[in-house]
UniProtKB/TrEMBL annotation, chain A:
SUPFAM superfamilies assigned: Protein prenylyltransferase
Provenance organism: Daphnia pulex (Water flea)
Phylogenetic lineage: Eukaryota, Metazoa, Ecdysozoa, Arthropoda, Crustacea
Protein name: Prenyltransferase-like protein
Pfam families in the record: PPTA
Source domain of life: Eukaryota
Keyword set, alphabetical order: Prenyltransferase, Repeat, Transferase
Automatic annotation (TrEMBL), chain B:
Membrane topology field: Lipid-anchor
Entry-linked Gene3D superfamilies: 1.20.5.110, Longin domain (3.30.450.50)
Family as reported in the entry's similarity comment: Belongs to the synaptobrevin family.
Full protein name: EOG090X0E6P
Domain Longin span(s) in chain numbering: 9-103
A single GO cellular-component term on record: Golgi membrane
UniProt xrefs under Pfam families: Longin, Synaptobrevin
Major site of localization recorded for this protein: membrane
Superkingdom: Eukaryota
Domain V-SNARE coiled-coil homology, first and last residues per copy: 140-200
Compartment list: Cytoplasmic vesicle membrane; Golgi apparatus membrane
Keyword set, alphabetical order: Coiled coil, Lipoprotein, Membrane, Methylation, Palmitate, Prenylation
């Protein structure tokens, strides 16, 4: 359906126009079901004579034919209303919500909502839901994630907030690969929870375990490996605190050898990681991330003679597929050559 | 990402188009409203690819961020695996051989003509799809079966490269009867925005 842009201004005071009814339907579903999981635009070939809002088992859909006109209507009106004029804030909330669901990349509208919340005209719960729905459709939407971070610093926090955010990050990173924004958000949530609750070895260990599983299945995900590096760095920065709780630390890390000091524990971790990394490099061809991560591990620990053993293993065709005349293996050889050069530079 | 999306077994007779006998999907990484369309497209892609693979040969076809591995046996039984680029090709093709051997051993060859109760009763696909999400599981398998000659796998960079002269993917999509109107619409929008969800 097509409307002239000037129509939207004229319609603004007609509470019975098509757009208003669709917005009301949408809002009614969001109010009725606070546990909505996903939002999406549903492709249908033609408009049928019924509401374009679809609500199936905690998923919210809007039929594609009405998206343009509803978005234009909400967008025009969101910019026309003044957030400071109290009489209009309810309508403003209504329009920005729908406009953001349909096009979440408009930072100004997120900021309008921030102003409403900051002025206590709106409470933050609804924005958690909106940003969650936006992210279910666009898992890399950085505006929605940053709005969430702002919210988490503004409103009083639910005791479960860390779990909620971490499981959101899980979903986002599995929905779209190399999701840098989701992993940055995860880092922020982790750091923020430490800031509020102090260093927590159990949280660290559970994150380390999750990232172990993740990286094994997503070898080329730079952001995922970077998070693992972030966790290891974090462990090193808190060696002093860990030292005071060595019993717990040994238990959490499954260390049965009776390691005495936390820095020894850290070195063990690095060595384990090096071993795992070697296995991955030898069994999967040409993933540059693995080499980057290896160089981080070597830099964090100390390089000893075993590194040349590793290079030998990579070159030995009996133990890996490196030397067969296949294109992928040529790339692997290039990474190996690069690694060798880095190693000689680093040891100088 | 190392991920398997679907496994489909088809049968191709001398005449007529290939029949989908049984398929298993893992669509958890797609949005709720996209799943049915994605599933239709995976079945559709499997069909057009098996039609264009000669008997007793293997192909791997790249399309966007997906990779389809196809194996057509000499007796017309075919298997199509949809994975991502990072899933090792060798493992994928070994898995295809294994799945077809297993299927042929459990379901009589006279029943391969079309999807029927016997094919539906074959439950090995879901299990394989879940198990081999971890390519390490397939590692042992790869080492045993050395007869797979990797150099014989034909690689294509797009589905268009597999199509015969004069054929266009857009035409095949719009003519297809296996795709619902909503899925065709989904295909068009995905193509226009070139978003993450373009499949097919």
């Amino acid at each position: 359906m097509q409307r002239d842009p000037s129509d939207y201004k004229k319609m603004a005071h007609d509470p019975y126009c098509l757009e208003e009814r669709i917005i009301s339907d949408l809002q009614a579903v969001m109010k009725k079901d606070p546990n909505l999981e996903e939002f999406d635009v549903v492709p249908v070939t033609e408009a049928k004579n019924r509401s374009p809002i679809i609500h199936i088992s905690h998923n919210l859909g809007i039929e594609v034919w009405c998206v343009k006109t509803v978005f234009m209507y909400c967008y025009e009106n969101s910019f026309k209303l003044d957030p400071m004029w109290k009489k209009e804030y309810l309508r403003l909330e209504r329009y920005t919500r729908v406009a953001l669901l349909l096009n979440p990349n408009i930072a100004t509208l997120w900021n309008t909502r921030k102003r409403l919340i900051a002025n206590h005209l709106l409470d933050g719960d609804c924005d958690f839901l909106i940003s969650k729905l936006v992210l279910s459709q666009k898992p890399k939407c950085v505006e929605a994630l940053s709005h969430r971070r702002w919210l988490l610093q503004q409103v009083s926090l639910d005791p479960q907030w860390v779990e909620t955010e971490l499981s959101l990050c899980d979903r986002l990173s599995s929905r779209m690969k190399c999701n840098y924004h989701a992993w940055s958000h995860r880092q922020w949530v982790y750091s923020q929870s430490l800031k509020l609750q102090g260093f927590n070895l159990n949280l660290w260990a559970s994150e380390f375990e999750i990232s172990d599983v993740w990286t094994k299945f997503h070898l080329s995900d730079h952001s995922g490996w970077h998070y693992r590096k972030f966790l290891l760095d974090h462990f090193r920065q808190n060696l002093g605190k860990i030292e005071q709780n060595m019993d717990i630390a040994r238990k959490v890390l499954g260390d049965s050898t009776g390691t005495a000091t936390s820095s020894q524990l850290y070195m063990n971790l690095l060595n384990e990681e090096l071993q795992k990394n070697q296995d991955l490099i030898l069994s999967f061809n040409a993933h540059e991330t693995l080499w980057y991560y290896r160089r981080f591990l070597l830099q964090a620990g100390t390089i000893d003679h075993s590194e040349s053993l590793f290079i030998e293993k990579c070159c030995n065709p009996a133990k890996s597929n490196c030397n067969s005349a296949n294109n992928v293996d040529a790339i692997q050889m290039r990474y190996l050559e690069h690694h060798r050069r880095w190693l000689s530079d680093f040891c100088l | 990402m190392v991920k398997l999306y679907s496994l489909a077994i088809l049968h191709r007779s001398e005449q007529g188009s290939p029949q989908l006998l049984r398929a298993a999907y893992d669509l958890s990484s797609f949005g709720f409203f996209q799943r049915s369309s994605v599933q239709e497209f995976m079945a559709f892609t499997a069909k057009i690819l098996t039609e264009r693979t000669s008997a007793a040969s293997r192909q791997s076809v790249k399309q966007g961020e997906y990779m389809c591995h196809i194996y057509v046996r000499a007796d017309g039984l075919c298997c199509v695996l949809t994975a991502d680029h990072e899933y090792p090709q060798r493992v994928a093709h070994t898995l295809l051989t294994k799945v077809l051997d297993d299927f042929a051993a459990r379901v009589e060859s006279s029943l391969w003509i079309e999807a029927n109760a016997a094919c539906a009763a074959y439950s090995g696909l879901e299990a394989s799809l879940a198990k081999y999400q971890n390519p390490r599981e397939a590692d042992a398998l790869t080492k045993v079966q050395d007869e797979l000659d990797e150099t014989k796998i034909i690689l294509h960079n797009t589905i268009e490269a597999v199509l015969q002269r004069g054929e266009k993917l857009d035409d095949l999509v719009s003519k297809s009867q296996g795709l619902s109107d909503a899925s065709k619409m989904f295909y068009k929008t995905a193509r226009k925005t070139n978003s993450c969800c373009n499949f097919g």
